[in-house]
Specification:
Blueprint (H helix, E strand, L loop, with lengths): L2 H12 L12 E2 L12 H12 L17 H14 L3 E5 L2 H11 L6 E5 L4 H7 L5 E5 L4 H14 L5 E6 L11 H10 L2 E6 L24 E6 L9 E5 L1 H10 L1 H4 L6 H15 L2 H20 L9 E7 L1 H13 L2 E2 L1 E3 L9 E6 L6 H17 L3
Parallel strand pairs: 1-10, 3-4, 3-5, 5-6, 6-7
Antiparallel strand pairs: 2-8, 7-8, 9-12, 11-12
Helix pairs in contact: 2-10, 3-10, 4-5, 11-13
Amino acid sequence: MLSRYEQALEALNRRARLRALEGRAGIDFTSNDYLGLAESEELKSALIEALHRGVPVGAGGSRLLRGNHPEHEALEEEAKNFFGAESALYFGAGFAANVALISTLPQRGDLVLNDALVHASTHEGLGLTKAATDAFAHNDVTQLEDKLRAFRASNAEARCFIAVESLYSMDGDLAPLAEIAKLATAYDAILLVDEAHATGVQGPQGRGLAAHLEGQPNLISLHTCGKALGVSGALILMPDILRRFMINRCRSFIYATAPSPLMAAGLRTALKICAGADDRRTALQARIAQLNTHLQKLGLPVTGTQIQPIVLGADRRALDMAQALAREGFDIRAIRPPTVPEGTARLRITLSASLAPANVDALCHALAHLMQEHAA
């Protein structure tokens, strides 16, 4: 009965693509805790204080039943003000929020144009939407405009959505948001910006790379809360009419148990910390510059962000390198297809403001000799 599952796992293992859960070990160069907030005393104290004033751990039901807590509403009010949007809606996870957006707002007859390298959660939503979908090559503004022009030529009234990330999770590069936003306005399209890896790090006060666009009626931005903000969940920032539509039509909001009120309370504190965290962002930028200097000496391309891939090509080579780095005391994971395109298996290095400069130096020293030992 279960043999087909065993065969599938064996096939993955032969291709060096079998996944397994691993514990935490070594210096952290793999998490998305970019500001070092996840284990901070500030967040711990905020959660203890919230428990003392009676905030429950669990919501007990969906937001439309008894699960709607004052902490959810306070968070959404503070988030919309912090990010500069008309309204905010809190979800339990970034993946769920992305799926909810794409599967709910675009309707039959509409079109969703997505960057080819957007998050897996966006692709999951694309599989559920009733709208037509099409991808454009990564960061290719010319191809995007060609597709917008062709759609508008025969669909003057239908809605068009453009889905991008502001900072790409596996490549560490930035979207040309200014150009894409101009196209969205010119072709009467709604721009969906996934700020997951920019939130807390990029923009004024860490408000993201689309901060200068917030409040515009054709912008929807998604800010995950379990990365630089150190808590959990996700906030969708959007015009109020779309928030009300989501509350009425989004199945994964209507039928899901509400996020933990305790996490909402912690996130309220995280947003306050983020607003005043220029010192953390400065420390992170210093670590980025330090890593860039080392990698350039090794002849490797750099991204200039806190996400630095080292593309190795073969799946097995990436796994071997990750395991060798683990033996040296560094936690860096191998990223393989289908998460990344075929032939681009890689190490994904992420940096945090909490990293000591000596840790970055030590990692790059280890990389230098391991790259030679594990040469293709």
